């Protein structure tokens, strides 16, 4: 089957709850 990978890069406060609810996985990076 087909796979799909999307990166959504957020601002300093991240993404809204609506977008996070659609995600299967989430990775948080910080500096």
- The structural class is mainly alpha
Task: Please give the share of residues in helix.
Answer: 10-25%
List the quaternary state of the chains. single chain
Distance between the termini: 36 Å
Percentage of residues in DSSP E strands: under 5%
**Rg, nearest Å:** 11 Å
Number of strands: 0
Low-confidence stretches: none
Overall pLDDT: 86
Shape call: extended
Individual helix count: 1
Protein name: Putative RNA methyltransferase-like protein
GO biological process, one term: methylation
InterPro entries: Alpha/beta_knot_MTases, RlmH-like, tRNA_m1G_MTases_N
Keywords: Methyltransferase, S-adenosyl-L-methionine, Transferase
Top keywords for this entry?
1 helix; RlmH-like; Putative RNA methyltransferase-like protein; transferase
Structure description:
This protein has 1 helix and no strands. The longest helix is centred in the middle third of the chain and has 6 residues, at 17-22. It is extended and about 35 Å long. The mean pLDDT is 86. The chain has one helix spanning 17-22. With 31 residues, it is mostly helical.
Task: Please render the helix and strand layout as text.
Elements: H1 17-22
Brief overview:
The chain is mainly α.
């Amino acid at each position: 089957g087909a796979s799909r990978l999307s990166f959504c890069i957020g601002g300093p406060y991240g993404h809204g709850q609506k977008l996070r609810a659609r995600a299967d996985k989430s990775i948080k990076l910080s500096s």
